[in-house]
């Protein structure tokens, strides 16, 4: 496959699409990001990489971090994790409160806010230094020691995150939060504030395209079955109530975040990331979804 040529063609094609959508404003610090930014990066398992636009610029990965924390929690807690969070698509907004009441405080999946907050609670119970441990893990799988939290973004979300406060106290009242809510949210806001480029993201996700092995050292970080399960949850739940749309049009497992980033992967081939801060009403980056739709059409490859 001539990925170099395909990525060049993709860049030309994407310049012809109009750029619509709004920067997320409910986290004040995210509102400051320049809406014209746009980056694309493809990291192949054979070590070749291709990118264009602002693909080396850092942005707030937000909910994409939910994949890292799920992978860590699953590794440590195994099947017990599924007593506290389900694996069904929510068909609802990522910060919805209504479903929780009907389902006794057990979130639908680990990629909506409530689910990821439960995962954060689980990690807080088992990790000695949760924030340091998560950062070490992300740096290790990205082979990049420069990755860090953006503390301004974490503080900004803490000051404005009433919806997450409501979610966590509701789950606590039903016994599904074990630690102090403030401590759990502090960890959750830090994970969401991870600041990475499309290039770093794509490189860190090669692991999920490579059956849990680091491509550089062949070291097994996760077992093959765990990776299969995490990729399945990305496919069915990675884009909230647009998961069906993404799967239908792109045909890859992936995950979005309100910073405007998207990560997706094709097992045994590559991980790919696209970013622009402009979001649609469902909190996803429409042009990014379109970019990946065009990309998988040009390659003629998807998981199906
Ligand atoms: N979809 C997202 O990226 C949401 C993450 C954001 N930190 C929140 O909790 O609302």
TrEMBL record:
- Coiled-coil ranges per the record? none
Molecular function (Gene Ontology), one example: glutaminase activity
What's its EC? 3.5.1.2
Arranged from A to Z, the UniProt key words for this protein are: Acetylation, Hydrolase
Question: Would the keyword Acetylation be found if you checked this record's keyword annotation?
Answer: yes
- Stored InterPro entries: Beta-lactam/transpept-like, Glutaminase
Source domain of life: Bacteria
Entry binding sites for substrate: 63, 113, 157, 164, 188, 240, 258
Q: What class of enzyme is it?
A: hydrolase
Q: Which GO terms describe its biological process?
A: glutamate biosynthetic process; L-glutamine catabolic process
According to UniProt, the reaction catalysed is: L-glutamine + H2O = L-glutamate + NH4(+)
Q: Which Pfam families match?
A: Glutaminase (PF04960)
Family annotation (NCBIfam families):
Gln_ase, PRK00971.1-2
Give the quaternary structure: Homotetramer.
Family statement drawn from the similarity comment of this UniProt entry: Belongs to the glutaminase family.
Q: Which PANTHER family match?
A: GLUTAMINASE (PTHR12544)
The protein's name: Glutaminase
Q: Which source organism? A: Psychroflexus salis
């Amino acid at each position: 496959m001539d990925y170099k040529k395909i990525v060049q063609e993709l860049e030309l094609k994407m310049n012809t699409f109009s750029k619509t959508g709004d920067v997320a404003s409910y986290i004040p610090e995210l509102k400051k990001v320049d809406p014209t930014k746009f980056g694309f990066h493809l990291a192949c398992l054979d070590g070749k990489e291709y990118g264009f636009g602002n693909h080396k610029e850092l942005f707030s990965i937000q909910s994409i971090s939910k994949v890292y924390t799920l992978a860590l929690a699953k590794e440590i807690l195994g099947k017990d994790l599924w007593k506290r969070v389900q694996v069904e698509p929510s068909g609802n907004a990522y910060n919805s409160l209504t479903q929780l009441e009907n389902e006794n405080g057990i979130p639908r999946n680990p990629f909506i806010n409530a689910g990821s907050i439960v995962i954060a609670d689980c990690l807080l119970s088992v990790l000695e230094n949760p924030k340091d441990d998560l950062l070490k893990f992300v740096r290790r799988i990205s082979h990049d020691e420069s990755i860090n939290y953006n503390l301004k973004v974490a503080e900004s979300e803490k000051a404005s995150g009433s919806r997450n406060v409501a979610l966590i106290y509701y789950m606590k009242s039903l016994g599904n939060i074990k630690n102090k809510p403030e401590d759990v949210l502090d960890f959750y806001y830090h994970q969401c504030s991870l600041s990475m480029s499309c290039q770093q993201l794509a490189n860190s996700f090669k692991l999920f395209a490579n059956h849990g092995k680091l491509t550089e050292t062949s070291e097994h970080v996760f077992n093959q079955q765990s990776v299969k399960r995490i990729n399945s949850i990305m496919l069915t739940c990675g884009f909230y109530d647009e998961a069906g749309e993404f799967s239908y049009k792109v045909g890859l497992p992936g995950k979005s975040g309100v910073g405007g980033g998207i990560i997706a992967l094709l097992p045994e081939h590559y991980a790919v990331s696209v970013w622009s801060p402009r979001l649609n009403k469902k909190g996803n980056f429409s042009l990014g979804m379109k970019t990946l739709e065009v990309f998988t059409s040009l390659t003629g490859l998807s998981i199906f």
